[in-house]
């Protein structure tokens, strides 16, 4: 395993761990915010789910700009 593939594996592991934690606590977070405002809870839930995809989209753009 070379240095580049090792760093890619570490980055993927960190992203998946972070996303897993967010998705695990998402219902608790949304229900807590929903006590104050249901609309805000929906907005926060959608933003947290979209952040998962945004990370991969940004990483793909970065990789494409580097020519890999």
What features would you highlight for this structure?
68 residues; 88% helix; MFS_trans_sf
Low-confidence stretches: none
How would you spell out the order of helices and strands?
HH
So how many helices?
A: 2
Provide the β-strand percentage band: under 5%
Mean pLDDT: 88
Overall form? elongated
The biggest sheet amounts to: none
What integer value in Å does the Rg equal?
16 Å
Helical residues, percent: over 70%
The assembly state of the depicted protein chains is: single chain
Number of strands: 0
Overall number of structural domains? 1
The helix-and-strand class reads mainly alpha
N- and C-termini, Cα separation: 17 Å
Keywords: Membrane, Transmembrane, Transmembrane helix
Protein name: Type II secretory pathway component PulF
Organism: Rhizobium pisi
Transmembrane segments: 12-34, 40-58
Provide a quick synopsis of the model:
Helix content is 88%, strand content 0%. The chain has 68 residues and is mainly α. The chain has one domain.
């Amino acid at each position: 395993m070379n240095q580049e593939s090792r760093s890619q594996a570490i980055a993927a592991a960190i992203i998946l761990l972070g996303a897993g934690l967010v998705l695990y606590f998402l219902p608790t977070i949304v229900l807590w915010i929903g006590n104050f405002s249901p609309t805000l809870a929906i907005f926060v839930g959608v933003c947290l789910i979209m952040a998962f995809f945004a990370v991969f989209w940004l990483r793909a753009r970065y990789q494409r700009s580097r020519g890999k």
